[in-house]
Amino acid sequence: MGVVKRAVIFGGAPVSMADLPAELPPYALCVCADAGLRAAQQLGIQPDFVVGDFDSLGSVPAGGNVVTYPAEKDDTDLLLAARYAVAQGCRELVFYGALGGRLDHTIANLQMLRLLADADTAGILIDAGHRVTLQRGGMWNSRQVYRKPQTGKWYLSLFAMTPVCEGITSAGVAYPLEHGTLRASYPLGVSNEILGEQAEISVEKGDLLVVQAKNV
Length: 216
Hints:
Layout: E1 6-10, E2 29-33, H1 36-42, E3 49-52, E4 66-68, H2 77-87, E5 92-96, H3 103-118, E6 122-127, E7 130-136, E8 143-147, E9 154-160, E10 164-171, E11 177-183, E12 198-202, E13 207-214
Parallel strand pairs: 1-2, 1-5, 2-3, 3-4, 5-6
Antiparallel strand pairs: 6-7, 7-13, 8-12, 9-13, 10-11, 10-12
């Protein structure tokens, strides 16, 4: 089985070195959405592709790898960047600068994870205190392993992104489930904890949002 092609995508929310791993995967495509270009440049990263309406950046950057869209459009700049990465064959997209900042943009980015799942693509939203992804029942990612971060106290929360998520099994956590059910109308899965080095979560039906959050 070949290596899954990955993309690293920078959005416009604040990004710091603390958000990033020690190094980016050498085979990852790097895409910037609008003001995400500023964050990448501040971190010394040169993107492969830049896209957006550039209202946040304030000007259209120069370069042959830049594509400009009008401000009046259906897709957010980050979604445009994600669509480009998927079109290039990437099946794992890691987003920095997609959490925090404007609440409406954060919610849009959480919804984007479902759109990516429709394209058989995993999306991961990361900042210094969060790691957010989506599991879809019946797909290749219906069973996942989540590792406990090495520093600080982190919580593991599960939220139903569809009206109902069924057949949820979670092991290696303080409050395990065995073929349980979560509903979008009740946050039963909030503030769990990984007990050992890792936890395993599977879901049979529905879209399950998995949030690792650092205690502050």
